C-alpha cells in the first residue's frame, strides 16, 4: 500500500479543501497561501504527488486530485473529524480546543483503529463543528435544509447546525455566549442598512454582525 508522509497528507487535504471552495484546478499560489509556505516549495511537492499518481499537475495550470488522491484526502479528513468528535464527546474537550490535536491524530495509519473509533462513536454523520464526516467508503452524506444565519428571515426559528469558521477565537466567543450545535434560536429582527441580525437564544437577546452571521449555519424549524 502507498505510504505518505505527514506533509504529503497535509497537502492532499489542503487541495481537497480548496477544491470544495472553487471549481477547476487549484493554483500554486492559492495552495502556497493555504499551506503558509513558498510557491517553490509547493511546486516541488506537487511534482512528488504527481509522480505518485495522486494528482494531475501542469506547470502554470494548477493541480487537481486524481481518484486515488481524492480517496486519500477523504480518508485523512474522516480521521480528523472522527478524532475531533471523540475528543469532544468522550474526553469533553471544548470545540475550540480539538482542531490542533486532531491535526496530529489524523496521521495515524491504522485503518482498523479508525473503523473501531467510528463504531465506538456510533457512526456520527457530523463533527463537533457541524462538518460532515466521510464514511469508510469515502462517501459524504449531504446536509439538506441548511442555510447561513445571514439568509434567515425575521420570525424564523432554527437550530444551530455548524460553523464555517473553526478558528479558536471565534469558537471561544460562541461558547462564551452559549451558542453551540443544537442551540435553538429565534430571529427577532434584521437590520437593512448593515445586515446585522437580532436573535433570541437561551432566553436572552443577542445581536450578530454580518461577519458572524455568514459563519453560522442553521436548520429552519
Automatic annotation (TrEMBL):
Its main location: cytoplasm. The keyword Transcription regulation applies. It is found in: Cytoplasm. Coiled coil: none annotated. It comes from the Bacteria. Pfam families: Fe_dep_repr_C, Fe_dep_repress, FeoA. GO terms for cellular component: cytoplasm. GO terms for molecular function: DNA binding; DNA-binding transcription factor activity; protein dimerization activity; transition metal ion binding. InterPro entries: DtxR_MntR_Metal-Reg, Fe-transptr_FeoA-like, Fe_dep_repressor, Fe_dep_repressor_sf, FeoA_core_dom, HTH_DTXR, Iron_dep_repressor, Transcriptional_repressor_C. Residues 4-66 form the HTH dtxR-type domain. Gene3D superfamilies: 2.30.30.90, Iron dependent repressor, metal binding and dimerisation domain (1.10.60.10), Winged helix-like DNA-binding domain superfamily/Winged helix DNA-binding domain (1.10.10.10). Keywords: DNA-binding, Iron, Transcription, Transcription regulation. PROSITE patterns: HTH_DTXR (PS50944). PANTHER family: IRON (METAL) DEPENDENT REPRESSOR, DTXR FAMILY, IRON-DEPENDENT TRANSCRIPTIONAL REGULATOR. In the presence of manganese, represses expression of mntH and mntS. Up-regulates expression of mntP. Homodimer. Belongs to the DtxR/MntR family. This is Transcriptional regulator MntR.
Amino acid at each position: 500500500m502507498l505510504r505518505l508522509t505527514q506533509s504529503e497528507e497535509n497537502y492532499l487535504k489542503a487541495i481537497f479543501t480548496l477544491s470544495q471552495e472553487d471549481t477547476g484546478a487549484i493554483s500554486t499560489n492559492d495552495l502556497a497561501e493555504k499551506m503558509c509556505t513558498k510557491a517553490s516549495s509547493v511546486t516541488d511537492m506537487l511534482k512528488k504527488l504527481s509522480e505518485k499518481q495522486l494528482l494531475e499537475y501542469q506547470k502554470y495550470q494548477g493541480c487537481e486530485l486524481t481518484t486515488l488522491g481524492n480517496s486519500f484526502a477523504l480518508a485523512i479528513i474522516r480521521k480528523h473529524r472522527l478524532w475531533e468528535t471523540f475528543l469532544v464527546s468522550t474526553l469533553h474537550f471544548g470545540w475550540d480546543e480539538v482542531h490542533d490535536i486532531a491535526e496530529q491524530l489524523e496521521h495515524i495509519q491504522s485503518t482498523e483503529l479508525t473503523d473501531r473509533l467510528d463504531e465506538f462513536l456510533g457512526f456520527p454523520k457530523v463533527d463537533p463543528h457541524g462538518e460532515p464526516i466521510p464514511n469508510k467508503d469515502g462517501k459524504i452524506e449531504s446536509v439538506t435544509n441548511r442555510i447561513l444565519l445571514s439568509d434567515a428571515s425575521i420570525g424564523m426559528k432554527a437550530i444551530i447546525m455548524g460553523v464555517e469558521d473553526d478558528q479558536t477565537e471565534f469558537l471561544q466567543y460562541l461558547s462564551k455566549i452559549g451558542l453551540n450545535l443544537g442551540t435553538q434560536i429565534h430571529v427577532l429582527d434584521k437590520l437593512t442598512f448593515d445586515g446585522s441580525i437580532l436573535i433570541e437564544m437561551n432566553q436572552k437577546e443577542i445581536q450578530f454582525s454580518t461577519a458572524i452571521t455568514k459563519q453560522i449555519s442553521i436548520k429552519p424549524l
